[in-house]
Amino acid sequence: MMMREEINSGQLERLLNEENGILSGKDFILRLTSYMNQEMTLRKEETSSLDRKEDNRRLCYLSAEFLTGRLLHQNLLALGILDRVKELASRHNLNLTDVLEEECDPGLGNGGLGRLASCFLDSLVHLDLPATGYGICYRFGLFKQSLQDERQKEQPDNWRHEDLWGQENRSKCYRIPFGGSVDISCNESGELKFKLIPEFEILAISVDYPVSSTYNNRVQPLRLWKSEAPEGFDLDLFNRGDHGKAWKQINTAESLTAVLYPGDEAESGKKLRLKQQYFFVSASLQDMMAEFRETHDPHWTAFPDKYVIQLNDTHPVLAIPELMRLFLDQEGLSWEEAWNICTRVFAYTNHTVLEEALEKWPVSSLRELLPRIMLIIEEIQRRLEEESGTPSIIQNEYVHMAALAVYGSFSVNGVAALHSRLLTETVLKDWYIRFPQRFNNKTNGITHRRWLMQCNPALTNLINDLIGNEWQRKPHLLSGLNQYKDDSSVLERLGRIKQGNKELFNRWIHMEKGLNCPPHYLFDFQVKRIHEYKRQLLNILSILQKYRALKNNPDIQEIPHLFLMGGKAAPGYYMAKEIIHLACRCSSVINNDPLCRDKLQLLFLPGYNVTMGEKIFPASELSQQISTAGKEASGTGNMKFMMNGALTLGTMDGANIEIFKASGKENNIPFGMSSEEVVHYRKEYNPKTFIEGNQEIKALFQEIENGLLGNPDEFRDLLEHLFKEDPYLVLPELEAHTAAISKGERLYSDKQNWLQKSLMNIASSGIFSSDRTIGEYASDIWKLSARKAD
Ligand SMILES: *Cc1c(COP(=O)(O)O)cnc(C)c1O
């Protein structure tokens, strides 16, 4: 793409000159980013006008969540001013590394799904593919987590006060209708005409975040919508003297995008969430249509040639009936025309097979809040029923969003090979039989720019020294590292880098959280949202078994092993919060027992987010990915660990399977049942009889009962649940997991051998770059073309 004028560095110098006084870190950042925002807005406009000229198809990625992480470092790289700014900072006695630590980390997502969306935007811009991310500008991000009395404490995250990048554009705003009724009339030719008479409207205002590239000058928007009361809306009421009601309506409007629902993998069924979903998809579609109108004669049949819309999970699936509404009621298209366009424009990504996570909305809520949308869904269902042998979208007065998504999309994908297969065999089986050609797999990925180059400069330099830097553009070339697997000097350097990163992590976590992670321990991480299916409980119980073994035989020579756990629990998810409580208690019992010193330690790291991840992955040696096989759709944390040289201790689930395949089972520590074995085992499984038949496990619970962790009543609910249900097979896999940990320690005691495995993991991690994933989406689903070089 065309090069813009070199950055006007004179302006930058003037802004950050020390001659007019020394700046504090905060002021320095504010001045710097005001300049950067100007530059990037210009680049964004240039990108957009060049895109219009080329008139290629554009991807719109609709996602209720984006976990962007901090943006300053990447944007400095993109503008090519990192070194310059480092120098300017030093004139204010500032260290740029410390300045970067001042930036807040916008928590506009729960976990993997939101982070995936941000990795995708990064790959899209670097691959020079025209794309817009559309989402919600939550006023409060995911809660901040701290620990108090060994329990999770939640605090609001008022991140907008510290936001450096959001560019509000009041000229890009749309009205979103809610409630009311539908007027149905018949025109002269006997066609039904529908007119929605909304009860109220809410304004959607765009706030753009720059998505910038270090390879080209492309800057494209992550466009988030925030809600406001429309002007004039309250005035009528005010004039009639009904101030109370006027304020209430303003409040309702503004609270619509106030909070992110903190449930990960849980469908919450709340009306406000339904409103949020409709709000952001309607605004996004109106935005695309306005843009299309500006540049093309509104021959809507050409719309799918110019736009393709990827639905990230079912959260944005109301876009399908909403686009129907806009075409039918506003553009006057016939049903057949409108449906034909829709089914050529939408593609859907499924993220889960967990029953409790599959979204469904009561017909009654839809009818009340979105009456026209509900009529359209009913018409879709009616026409669907005319085709024989199809499953249905409305069942027992609920609208099943995944069903609507499959029916209204031309592509349906899962996020790892196993997951995509399970979709066709279980939750979407009937749909697969009806539309087999729609189903495909796109294994997730992560951006190696953030998750290797940016967060692990020492390792990046080593790789550059060994194989040059072409791998940065073509990450599969990391495989070139394999030739060094027997080179002891390379392995030694790799070991020193890991040790250095462990020291950096220790310093950082001490400064941030006051915790100590002495670097002579093996660093073993399990960080991810707390969920029963992810089995943090399995890890804790294995740690307790190791602790008991140590107490029974204090002389066994163990390698120093530090277990680090972290992750947020949804505030309403009782069992998940009890698991955090148990982890904290075990941590204090074990770490306070002198017997465990230099042998076994456990820490719970509060406040896991993207920024903490950037410190964790480079310092990691073992990556625990131990979900019950068949339950974790893909996982992406597993890929970040692998790319930074950790070995995966994990089950045959999600993308773990593909990780083992890429780097070799012998270079990792796989354990446990396959997804088929899990299904089979569950049929006969009874936790009570299982415990009765297993002396080791029985003894563990006996000791807990006798006060190993203090008052056993504190963990009664958690343990009762385990004894009664154990839905994720923690107990049957406890021995295998404990054995896997011991195997990990054995392997670790042979340092050279361990480092060789570590190197081979890094060498095989290229296929987990989201550049590979996006390349597959672009060629198989979106049919996008990168801009021709000029
Ligand atoms: C990558 C990432 C996740 C996803 O982790 P999984 O182990 O795949 O569940 C969650 N949260 C954050 C902050 C991440 O960076």
TrEMBL record:
Its EC number is 2.4.1.1. InterPro entries: Glycg_phsphrylas, Glyco_trans_35, Pyridoxal_P_attach_site. It is found in: Cytoplasm. Its cofactor is pyridoxal 5'-phosphate. Its main location: cytoplasm. It catalyses: [(1->4)-alpha-D-glucosyl](n) + phosphate = [(1->4)-alpha-D-glucosyl](n-1) + alpha-D-glucose 1-phosphate. SUPFAM superfamilies: UDP-Glycosyltransferase/glycogen phosphorylase. It comes from the Bacteria. GO terms for biological process: glycogen catabolic process. Keywords: Allosteric enzyme, Carbohydrate metabolism, Cytoplasm, Glycosyltransferase, Pyridoxal phosphate, Transferase. Gene3D superfamilies: Glycogen Phosphorylase B. It holds the Pfam family Phosphorylase. The modification N6-(pyridoxal phosphate)lysine is found at residue 640. One of its GO terms (cellular component) is cytoplasm. GO terms for molecular function: glycogen phosphorylase activity; pyridoxal phosphate binding. Coiled coil: none annotated. Belongs to the glycogen phosphorylase family. Allosteric enzyme that catalyzes the rate-limiting step in glycogen catabolism, the phosphorolytic cleavage of glycogen to produce glucose-1-phosphate, and plays a central role in maintaining cellular and organismal glucose homeostasis. Phosphorylase is an important allosteric enzyme in carbohydrate metabolism. Enzymes from different sources differ in their regulatory mechanisms and in their natural substrates. However, all known phosphorylases share catalytic and structural properties. This is Alpha-1,4 glucan phosphorylase. It comes from Oceanispirochaeta crateris.
